[in-house]
Specification:
single chain; 678 residues; alpha+beta; four-stranded antiparallel sheet; three-stranded antiparallel sheet; 25 helices; 19 strands; 40% helix; 13% strand
Length: 678
Amino acid sequence: MVTATKAVAFPHLTPTTAIAWLKAVGLLRLSGARGYWDDCFYLLDISAEDLVKNILNNYQPKPFLSPWNNGSLVNKNEFQRVLASQSERYRLMREGYAELQNAMQSLDTVGQSAAQKKLTLMADLPKRVGNHHWLEWINAVGLMTNTQTGSRFLCNDLLGTGGNIGTTEFCTAYFQVCTQLWDLDTGEPSPETAAFIRASVLGESQSKTLLPQALLGHTYPVADYFDDLAPAGTSPADYLDNGGRSSQLANPVDLILYLEGATTFTGKAIPLNEVAEGGQEYTIAAYPLLLEVNSGSADTSDRTGRAYEVWLPLWEQPMDWEDFQDIVTTDLAFRLKNQVVDTIDMLDVITQANDYCGGLSRFARFGLWTRKGQGKYLIYVGLATPGKTDFAAELRKWRLQARPSEKQPQAQYNLLTAIQKTLYRLQQGNAEVTTAIRLLGQLEVLHGRIKTKVPPVPQLSEKWVEAVYQEYPMAEVELAAALASTAPTHVDSGHSYPFRRLLSSARYGNNDTWFWSDEHHHKLKTFSLEALCVSLLHLWNELWERDKYHPAHGWTYRASPSAIATFIAGRTNDQLILELALGFALCKIPSKLAPFSHTQPLPEPYKYAASLQWCRNTSLSAQTVNALLAGSTVPLSRQLAAMQKLVVLPSAIAVGKRCALALVFPCQPFHQLGEAHA
């Protein structure tokens, strides 16, 4: 983190609105200074006053122009006014427009539709115009690709559908605000220009610096449709409340900085490896992380439609505008090389590849939210920090096979959707591992009851269990891990029945893949923790009596006495234990998790019953377990007496059922009992 004392903070430029991020990049460009992101944007080695004076006195409008748009300046009288102007301030705009006019005279677009005109001009004009500033604009607006069905224009959603959004034609609006701020003939600033710049750049509250003009389009929805898009609790004091009609209040300098920031990016696309629907699909890696959102994988997606997000990079090490542009170019080349199309691709590649741009560690996510008749608005979704908790990378292949589909039963669709969303947030760096584990366990149980084409979840690593305990260091997590680690093992052959094998029909094949088996016969009841524990105890007894499989010969993690005492006392969330155990069944269980604790007393009947259960050379009879479930210790005392262990126990115990249920948790035996199996 940068701690330079000369850093100038811009508290109003936070990465929660697209316009603030674009303005920050515009300021980085116009200032010539170095900048970085923390909680807001910062510039180094420049004073706020010098920045305002530099823009006021030295800014030169650029020849931004999209000649295919109906509202383009090329179709207006103002175009000729620019060509006739003599001021030095408008020299760049004048020279670019003149070259563009000459190039267009040799192109015939008469009778073409707006879409056809766009394709013609986008294909031919860049070959005829050499003006650097106009080419910068045209490359930022969009790019042309060739498909089997003809040419196709891919737009940069940061600049709408080709330099316009709705009724806002950005280049025309840009010309209008520039001439409002600086006289076209003399180049001198108007009396109000300094106030506009201070309000926009420094975030100062200046009167009459918000104009009722359609300037910012989709980048700042709050200035356009405050009533249904503004964050809850935000004051509408600076905006008009017109009952849902557009207020369109904006600072004209915001538009200038927005376009200066947006023209940082140049687009490019290469074909994907597959062809779909008769036309060549492309990797649209054109601009700052424009990524397709797989159906059901993020907050901005729906069941049937194709949704997109724009990820705006937040860099923490100071760099100037040219350095940032280089990183963006490197990022583009990286995404093209790795065929990155969607958000899952991006997260997976970022967190695993060593050659990704190291300067980009956080991203501000914006969903493209469609308002009927008004185009796509950039709606803030949240911050993403890929790689911080990259557990979901283990499920990359499975996730591609487990996408929600309209053909699935509703319960399965709902679970898969929730899982995709949760894993997506997990890969962003958000703490969602506990939710993910619980959902994955529920899916395993559901797939045990229905026929499905979705493959089983592969075995997950120990870090899932460790991460859950790190989030919630509590007895429930410890007990769930202990339960999920059980695996009754044959005393001679060493063959075992892991908890997952008893729970579902998921099996691991010889070709390193998981599949659903038709030979699953062990059905555990999972509608409650009590039902699971009782059915598991009975199954263990059956496996021992019939085939000599013993639970004490196969387990990974032992619960501590304090966690077990908490359970017996009824102070645990049993539903949480159940859901975590079902999820942990999919994981490799670590041998060490929670610190050993024996600070709480345990009932003596439990300690003797647990010793019989978890000593390798003894076992509990079914009669003893059933009696303990009913609150009786008489069969337990008889079993101990048969082993020459005379113990005086109360004949009845109020917490007998909880003691019996607790026998499913592996533990260190409290007494050494017997020399042979009872």
